[in-house]
Amino acid sequence: MSFRSTILLLVAVTTVFAAKVSSAGEGFSEDLDFLNEHTQVVLLKNGDAAVAVVPAYQARVMTSTFDIESGPSLGWINRPVIERGLLSDQEEKGTLEEHIYVFGGEERFWLGPEGGQYALFFPPGAKFEFSQWSTPAAIDTEAFELLDKTASSAKFKHSTKLINHSGTEFVVDIDRTVRLLDQRDASKLLGIPLAGDLKMVAYETDNQITNAGTSPWEAESGLLSIWILGMYNPSPNTNVVIPFRSGDSKTLGPLVNDSYFGKVPDEYLKVGEQELFFRGDGTRRGKIGITSQRSKGIAGSYDAAGQVLNIVTYNVQEAPHGFVNSMWELQDEPYAGDAINAYNDGSPEPGKPPLGPFYELETSSPAAALQPNEAMRHVQRTYHFNGTEADLDPIANHLLGVSLEAIRTAF
Asked: What is the DSSP code (8-state) at residue 252?
């Protein structure tokens, strides 16, 4: 079965689990009440800003808001899956949960690569087909331990063993800290002044993996990477923008990789000289990627209806071993993967339901060639700004190199 066919099958399997979309019109307080009914929630607060973190879901940030009393819920939450909870082995058979629990969540911790000869989602001997694809429990169903909490931060830890498609075993310690950022922090980190009347919620996740085994992790037997994915509520008025470095493709790689689920049509992807625009409307499945050589360490999106500008940054670092490749195939270049990705969910063809729908902004660390007790960190920061177009336009221009109008009218 081809990679594209397996994805179509995955979507078809989700028919009976099609999720209610937590749209931008629904409130954070309602989502928080729902989560508290079904699982432990670690609530971080700083003034009106709040973030809801769930230890049972690998310490993922489920959602956030800039107004805890009456503000929108900015993360996509899959209520039906959360309501069902973890199933028995017998109950999982023939369901999507046999392969993955799609809880949703605005920012989750994963490990790569997904596919290829060093895949974590395909055991040794498995074919690259959906029927044999499975998310490792450590990033799917196993809870992270809460070690410490303050009003605005929480620290988590988890230890696990993983085996990749080539049979290499990894003993991994995972450390993850979620920390709210105030307006002064955000202004300093982004290098821009922020208006006093601007509404904002911002947070960082400091993610670390440590080789807790006795053997080094080597490229010849497979390397891991930290993979952070954010699921957001789509809308007809939401577009993604990713600035990139222009230059020769032989040195920097292609302007954009849109081959994940087949070529993205022009009405969903527009590539300029130094930036690209991609729809985040949840109507058509597609994914794009940017190489580390082209990445500027930043991506964003703008919801024109909700007047919310979203910014995602990560710590750019040296990558002597490249970035892992997650394509579902035996790869000629297993370390020629992307550093930034964006995904738009939606029906892949008439009559097929979406997985959500939602859209995603994703970042990845370099491939981690670690000696025993050596660690790699990947820090992602997420900023949500709410205000008038006059308030938000200088931020978009400074950080993304384009105006709000350009983002809003890209398609």
From this structure: H
Classify residue 196 by its DSSP letter. T
Residue ranges of E strands in 107-182: 108-112, 145-149, 153-163, 169-181
Give the DSSP H or E segment for 29.
helix 28-38
DSSP lists the bridge partners of residue 386 as: 199, 308
**H/E run at residue 189:** helix 183-190
CA 110 – CA 112 distance, rounded (Å): 7
The candidate with the shortest Cα–Cα distance to 54, out of 78, 72, 88, 70, is 78
SS3 at position 209: strand
Give the predicted TM-score (pTM) of the model.
Answer: 0.93
DSSP string, 281-322: SSSS-EEEEE-TTTB-SEEEEEETTTTEEEEEEE-----TT-
Question: Distance between alpha carbon 143 and the CA centroid of its chain, in Å?
Answer: 18
Question: How many residues appear in the chain?
Answer: 411
C-alpha span between 52 and 206 (Å, rounded): 16
Task: State the CB neighbour count (10 A cutoff) for residue 248.
Answer: 7
The tens digit of pLDDT for each residue in 272-307 reads: 999 999 999 999 999 999 999 999 999 999 999 999
Q: Let me know: does 288 contact 257? Beta carbons within 8 Å.
A: yes
Alpha-carbon span 165 to 170, nearest angstrom = 12
In this structure, what are the phi and psi dihedrals at residue 362, rounded to the nearest 5 degrees? -135, 145
